[in-house]
Amino acid sequence: MLLLSALPLAGVVWAIEVLDVPWRPTPGMDGIIGDAEYPAPSLVSHCSLYLCQDTNFLYVAVAIPDPTYNASDGITICIGTEPPSPERTPRVDDYTMTLSRSGAFTTTGFTSYKYATTTDSGGWGFEVAIGLPELETTPGQYKSLGFALFIKDDGKEVARWPDDADQESPKTWGVLSSSYFWGTVDLQPQSLTLSNQRPTTGEDVTLSFAYTNEGSSPISGAQIGFYVDGVHIATVGDARVIEVSELYIVSAIWRATAGNHTISAILDPLNDIRETREDNNELSYRLSTYSVRLTVKAQEGANVTVDGNTTTVGSSKEVVFNVNLGEVEVKAQGVIFKGDTRYVLRGWKMDGNESTNSTISIDVTGDEQQVEAIYGMEFRVRMSFLDSKGFNITKPSRIFFMAPNGSLITLNGTYDVWLQRGTIRMYNVIWSSVDVVPSDSTYTILYPGWLTIRCRIYDATVVLRDFLDFPVAGANVTLVLPNTTRVWLLTDSNGEAHFTQIPAGRLSGSVSSYGITYIREQDLTADSVIQLSLAISVNTIWFLIAISVGAVSGLLYLLWRRERAKLRMPPPPLPPPPEQDDGIFAGPNGRR
Ligand SMILES: [Ca+2]
Ligand SMILES: [Ca+2]
Ligand SMILES: [Ca+2]
Ligand SMILES: [Ca+2]
Fold first, then answer.
1. Does residue 49 sit in the same domain as residue 128?
2. What CATH number does the domain containing 366 carry?
3. Do 270 and 283 fall into the same domain?
4. Do 44 and 173 lie in a common domain?
5. Which pLDDT belongs to residue 577?
């Protein structure tokens, strides 16, 4: 049981307590405070106070926990059409109603009202509806009312609101006001328009939504949700006071995506605002978006990737992609092989501009755009190196040349190379450490295939004769090549040593035969024969011996003839005939 303190002193300044009376659909006057009938109660001491209004009535409901049933359990409500103020004095339109738990009801002044009570073992409840015209409210206009509440248990006051209210002094009462201005609210959509009715995918579209409040009261705190295909994209909080029957427009931005869509705007999507109609808050708009056609021209067979989607280019040499507006990334296959021909991506051409990047980013702005991948054709060229006679040589250790596109290329040991159509200029062919590049060193590439390079590599033959012009066989001929390496051969029976594939350049050497004879230094610029004459050789020696032996033999023969004439000897016998068993002579190896 709560005992109240003494009443406040006159002249004390105090804050006026205010309770809001929200709008609600009409509660049922049955004495039962249903779950959804009222907004949350105000916590007034010793009871729960429920307040709401509709277009016609102010509703007050009180739940009083009082397990003892007494005929003099009761409640008194004071309402004044003029709100309290320090100077406020009692007026004739200050009304009072008193209700007892037993159901007895009295009022001073109210004529338009309904009420009901219920009671049970835990306490009792009370509902009353008071006609708003009697409280001099006008729907849609702000008005505050004086209000006080007094509760008795068995004739004794146990609670009141405000805490220091005095039933007889309206300036001590609290205040009721309605955020719904004592009227109703019905937000209604009027239109949903798009800045572009057929937007292009990727385009930012402004969604403009117009709505009105078709109730009788202004409202604030309206929110509008925007949805695309049922997916929330934005909620706009309208900070304005939404007056009755005025048009309000809010907007949101949607970046259009490909396809067909339903754009929706929903008023008060969280249903924070009680409206007379909640089923008329949505408006939808159906649309189809355009796609931008991006045409990519490229070499047949190339894989082209636009924003992650890859397509292979066919014989039309172009593919069309549907893309969004904005930045689009375009890539193309770097190299396409077709046998011994290949196509190499060199870059991109668009609107007269060229880029050498392999991937480009295009800012798509229009309905139709086109970009071309530039490919260069290259042929597989296999280089073959020959000597001056056209015989293959071993691979050069390195070559250096300028390709048709102007790039300088060095190759080491592998001479398969992809080249553009055009002319190459060979600068170096290093073979046996000597540059044997041909003097006429430009070659035209028209097709894939072999490129033959006839290098400055020659044969050198050393011919040795003695002073009687006999060939000198078996002499050791050593050549010092331009790369300073030495090669040697023995002369054959013709007195010749054949050196093949000698790199062009300064050549020297020596011959070893009965002493050393040096070969004069000379430039090898073609196949050459080096004639050397030696003072002495085995042949000469034998010749001289033969001459000497011949002279002696002649003399002896003459002497023998003289003696023979004297003796008259009989002639010597004939040699025996050859064996002729089968008429076939034996071969050199004795075979028959
Ligand atoms: Ca009720
Ligand atoms: Ca009681
Ligand atoms: Ca509505
Ligand atoms: Ca609502």
1. yes
2. 2.60.40
3. yes
4. yes
5. 53
Number of structural domains, the chain? 5
Which one-letter amino acid corresponds to residue 145? L
Per-residue pLDDT band for 558 (boundaries 50, 70, 90) equals confident
Q: Which two tokens stand for residue 172?
A: 């001590």
pLDDT given for residue 250 in this prediction: 98
Q: Quick one: which H or E segment has residue 551? A: helix 538-567
User: Ligand 1 centroid vs 589 CA: distance in angstroms?
Assistant: 141
Beta bridge partners of 438: none
> Longest C-alpha distance within the chain, in Å?
205
Task: Pick the ligand that lies closest to the CA of residue 24.
Answer: 4
What's the domain range around 346? 292-372
Q: Average pLDDT for residues 260-266, to the nearest whole number?
A: 96
Both 447 and 393 in one domain: the answer is yes
Ligand 2 center–CA 69 separation, angstroms: 5
Using the 3D structure, point to which of 352, 372, 392 is the last residue of a domain. 372
Instruction: For residues 527 and 508, give the distance between their C-alpha atoms in angstroms, rounded to a whole number.
Output: 15
> Does residue 433 form part of some domain?
yes
For all residues of the chain together, what is the average pLDDT?
Answer: 89
Residue 373, pLDDT > 50, answer yes
* Rounded distance from Cα 46 to ligand 2 centre (Å): 12
Distance 59 CA to ligand 2 centre (A): 24
Q: What's residue 570's pLDDT?
A: 55
CA of 70 to the centre of ligand 2 (A): 5
| pLDDT range class, residue 566, cuts 50, 70, 90 | low
Is 356 among the domain residues? Answer: yes
Going by the DSSP 8-state scheme, the letter that residue 572 receives in this structure is: P
Q: Can you read off the two tokens belonging to residue 586? A: 């034996």
Q: Are 479 and 487 in contact (CB under 8 A)?
A: yes
pLDDT digits 0-9 by tens, 290-321 = 888 899 999 999 999 998 999 999 999 999 99
DSSP string, 116-149: EEEEETTEEEEEEEEEGGGGT--TTS---EEEEE
Q: What CATH number should be reported for the domain holding residue 531?
A: 2.60.40.1120
Contact 17, 176 (CB under 8 A): no
Q: Are residues 464 and 449 in the same domain?
A: no
Q: Which residues surround the ion ligand 1 when the cut-off is CB under 5 Å?
A: 28, 30, 32
3-state secondary structure of 231: strand
- Do 443 and 349 fall into the same domain? no
Amino acid making up residue 138: T
Tokens read off for 216: 């009788």
88's tokens: 């406020």
State the distance from the centre of ligand 4 to the C-alpha of 31, rounded, in angstroms: 27
Distance of alpha carbon 307 from alpha carbon 326, whole angstroms? 11
For 5, residues 6+ apart whose C-beta sits below 8 A from its C-beta are none
Residue 328 phi, psi (nearest 5)? -130, 130
Question: 189 alpha carbon to ligand 3 midpoint, in Å?
Answer: 8
> 421 pLDDT band (50/70/90 cuts)?
very high
